[in-house]
Amino acid sequence: NAGVTQTPKFQVLKTGQSMTLQCAQDMNHNSMYWYRQDPGMGLRLIYYSASEGTTDKGEVPNGYNVSRLNKREFSLRLESAAPSQTSVYFCASSEAETGSYEQYFGPGTRLTVT
Amino acid sequence: GQSLEQPSEVTAVEGAIVQINCTYQTSGFYGLSWYQQHDGGAPTFLSYNALDGLEETGRFSSFLSRSDSYGYLLLQELQMKDSASYFCAVRGSGGYQKVTFGIGTKLQVIP
C-alpha cells in the first residue's frame, strides 16, 4: 500500500515550458486535491476533485489545468510555466464518506521555473 | 471566503506543554483539522473537530469552540521530534470538500 505517490520529485523548467505533474492513490478515495506551498504562505488549494469525473477550482487556479483520469489518478498541468509558479506542489486524497476528513498527502514535487 | 490566523512561531521546552491557537472566519463550517509538517516533508494528519469540545489522541489534543470560531492544538510532554510546523485547516464555505489552511506555526522544542 503506497498511499499517495507523485512524480517527478524535482523539476526545473524554463519560462514558457509546459509540464504535467502526476499523482496517484491506491486507497480507493473519492476526493483528490492539488496544493502549492510557498514559504510563509501555508498550503493553498489549486484544484480539487470531489469524485471521478468532476473537478473544481480552489483558491489559486490561474495558470493550471487538471485532469481526473480515473479514480486513482489526478494530474496537474502547467501550460506555460512562469517564475511565480516556483513552489512545492502536494497532491492529497481523502474519503469523506467514512466521516473522517483526514487528507493523505504525497511526498511533493519541488518545481523551479527559471 | 475563508481565512485562518495562527501564531507564526512558538518555542517551548522539552517535557513541557504547548498550546497553538487558531481562529478562523468562514461563512459555513464543517470542521477544523490539524496537520504536522517536518522540514522537507509532507503534511500528516493529527486531528479533526466537527463539534465543540476536546479530542484527545495520545500526547496531542485538539479543542474547538464553534461559537468563538476558535480552536487550539495542545501538545503535552514535548519531545525534540515535535519540532515541526503545525497547520490548522477549515472546511467551510464552498462545500465540505474545499479546505483552507492557515499559514502554519513553527514550533521549536529546546532542551
Radius of gyration of chain A, taken over Cα atoms and rounded to an integer in Å: 13 Å
Number of helices of chain A: 0
Question: Outline of chain A, from the CA principal axes?
Answer: globular
Beginning-to-end CA distance, first to last residue of chain A: 36 Å
Task: Indicate the proportion of strand residues of chain A.
Answer: over 45%
- By secondary-structure content and strand pairing, the structural class of chain A works out as mainly beta
> Major sheet of chain B: size, sense and barrel closure?
6 strands, mixed
Q: Can you give the helix content of chain B as a percent range? A: under 10%
Number of helices of chain B: 0
Largest interface, C-beta within 8 A? A-B, 25 and 24 residues
Mean pLDDT of chain A: 92
Arithmetic mean pLDDT of chain B: 92
Uncertain spans of chain A: none
What does the main sheet of chain A amount to?
Answer: 7 strands, mixed
DSSP, total strands of chain A = 11
pLDDT < 50 stretches of chain B: none
DSSP strand (E) fraction of chain B? over 45%
Radius of gyration of chain B from CA coordinates:
13 Å
Order of helices and strands of chain B: EEEEEEEEEEE
Q: Look at the helices and sheets of chain B and give the structural class.
A: mainly beta
Short description:
The complex is a heterodimer of chains A (114) and B (111). With 114 residues, chain A is mainly beta.
Task: Describe what you observe in this structure.
The complex is a heterodimer of chains A (114) and B (111). With 114 residues, chain A is mainly β. In chain A, 0% of the residues lie in helices and 51% in strands. The N and C termini of chain A lie far apart (36 Å). Chain B has strands at residues 3-5, 9-13, 18-25, 29-37, 44-49, 53-57, 60-65, 70-75, 84-92, 99-101, 105-110. Chain B is an all-beta fold. Chain B is built from no helices and eleven strands. Chain B starts with a strand and ends with a strand. In chain B, the strands form two sheets. In chain B, strands 2, 4, 5, 9, 10 and 11 form a six-stranded mixed β-sheet that branches. Helix content of chain B is 0%, strand content 59%. The chains are: A mainly beta (114), B mainly beta (111). The A-B interface holds A 31, 33, 35, 40-45, 48, 50, 56, 58-59, 90, 96, 100-108 and B 8, 30-31, 33, 35, 41-45, 48, 87, 89, 91, 95-104.
